[in-house]
Amino acid sequence: MLRALTRGFMANVSATPRELLLLVHTLLDTHAPGTTATAPREQHKLAVAAQAKGKAKAKGTKPSGEAIMADFALQMLLLFLKHGIGARGAKQGQVAETAVAQEGDQAEQGSKQKHAGVSGGDPSRLELLAPFVPVLARCMREHSTAVVTTALKCLAILCRYPLPNLRRHTDELARRSLSLLRSGVNASSPLSQECIKLLTSLLHSNAGWEATNGQLRALIESSFTDLEESNTQATTFRLLRVVLARRIVLDSVYTVMGRVQELLVRSQHASVRQACHGALVQFLLEYPLGPKRLRQHVEFLLVNLTFEHPTGRVAAAR
């Protein structure tokens, strides 16, 4: 029923963006957790719930009414951010229906496109979106994995825009995301992936997150557990490219790049080799390297010009 309501709201040509966003904000403000901080134990419970989500569907408990309504509002907000409701017309209902049916599967594509619903140069639209930052931060205290995951998706998109109040919440958002990553959630789970995407957006954008070395080390160690995992590859390498571009000097980065050059030569997957190639070129050309480290990487590539498999030899030669 809530999906049908979402389709109806998004297809309603008489509703203005302001009216729809006001509805969504009211729902979230009513049903999101309060301002009391979530204890680490509760964060751990959420992480465990996310890790056991598949088994929980067979056995588990039903989400609370508050969580259901919060998720309903978040899904509408996510559709607005990804697909927009500014261009009204006969096809708008079809777009909304398709988007709801996909249930966010196109998140990675959405990150590569401009969002039709929000313009970075539209102050009136940004003014409408700014109040969502604190309420989405509250949603990250929810015990429902679905609510937290969708809230993270919305926040990752909002971080790309110059919202006036975003800087006041970046430390809080980063701290909670890192807490979830370090709570034992599988790095390939949807919750972990959305945490990594949000943290990547905070690093990449001018959001004011002054990450400490400890936070960055925890992020890198939690994110780069399996560089060949196809479901997480795009997210992982995007984070790596952002870290390299920021020239963040940590031992963990050098360790990861050692694994990247190994994968460049040994992986049998073209997509992995391509991602490794881009990251390694950026690393060698832009990242701080002493003469000894640079010589080690160049010697590795020269040695592997005679690698046993032709794909490895070609990768090393590029």
TrEMBL record:
The record's listing under InterPro entries reads: ARM-like, ARM-type_fold, SSU_processome_comp_20
Q: What Gene Ontology cellular component terms go with this record?
A: 90S preribosome; small-subunit processome
Span list, region Disordered: 97-122
Q: Which domain of life is it from?
A: Eukaryota
SUPFAM superfamilies per the record?
Answer: ARM repeat
Q: Which Gene3D superfamilies match?
A: Leucine-rich Repeat Variant (1.25.10.10)
What this protein is called in its record is Uncharacterized protein
Which organism does this record belong to? Prasinoderma singulare
